[in-house]
Specification:
single chain, about 220 residues, alpha+beta, Helicase, Ruva Protein, domain 3, Tetrahydropterin Synthase, Chain A, GTP Cyclohydrolase I, Chain A, domain 1, 3 domains, three-stranded antiparallel beta sheet, 9 helices, elongation factor, cytoplasm
Length: about 220
């Protein structure tokens, strides 16, 4: 079947995939645009999955200072080779992650890092709230599970909506970049410092200012 250049360009703009990949996906999907986008997404995930077992021992430690020294972030983002670590594409990614941390203030990289005692405390609070609302006992644990997923998305970097594109999480961004660059990419650790931390107004102001820089 004939695939129009406009459809190929449209699919490329949406997915970031190459022209030939977009053309092949549209042909495979019989011209169905949404099905073609899904095919590319699946293929991207497959490419990223192939890198999952690789060792990411190279990368960068990046610093970001904001607000005349009132807010600072150090983050280590790993890749597999020094060559990739020196590319503009990788450095732009690391900078974006650092600015995201500055703006959104995650506390952990992933849910695996959250201490068990903190999780149980949070669950106990939710259980008490739900019981006070008169929720049936058999429903409480299911509701708590949903609330914990939201809790993770608030405190864990990988599960937060990425500040430059809130339709994807930071983890999805890293997966896309792994597929695009062809090397496993991961955030190993970070630290965030803020003068007067605990003053909510300052945190909100910093987030707004960083958001403006991110565009």
């Amino acid at each position: 079947m004939s695939i129009s250049a406009s459809d190929i360009a449209r699919l490329r703009a949406q997915t970031g995939a190459g022209m030939l990949d977009c053309k092949n996906a549209l042909e495979e999907a019989g011209g169905d645009f949404e099905a073609a986008a899904e095919l590319l997404r699946k293929k991207g995930i497959a490419k990223a999955a192939k890198r999952a077992g690789k060792i990411a021992a190279e990368g960068l430690v990046w610093s970001y200072i904001h607000g005349n020294g009132r807010l600072g972030v150090l983050v280590e983002v790993n890749c597999e080779t020094d060559f990739v670590a020196r590319t503009d594409n990788f450095q732009d990614l690391v900078k974006g992650v650092a600015m995201h941390i500055a703006a959104v203030s995650p506390r952990y990289v992933s849910r695996a890092e959250v201490p068990g005692a903190e999780l149980e405390k949070e669950k106990d609070i939710y259980r008490a709230q739900l019981a006070a609302e008169g929720k049936p006992a058999e429903m409480i644990e299911k509701i708590v599970e949903g609330k914990m997923n939201k809790f993770y998305s608030e405190i864990c970097l990988l599960e937060q909506p990425y500040i430059r594109d809130e339709d994807k999480t930071v983890e999805q961004l890293l997966g896309e970049k792994t597929a695009e660059i062809g090397e496993k990419i991961s955030v190993r650790r970070f630290v965030r410092f803020e003068l007067g931390e605990g003053i909510e107004k300052k945190r909100v102001d910093f987030a707004a200012e960083v958001g403006e820089q991110l565009g």
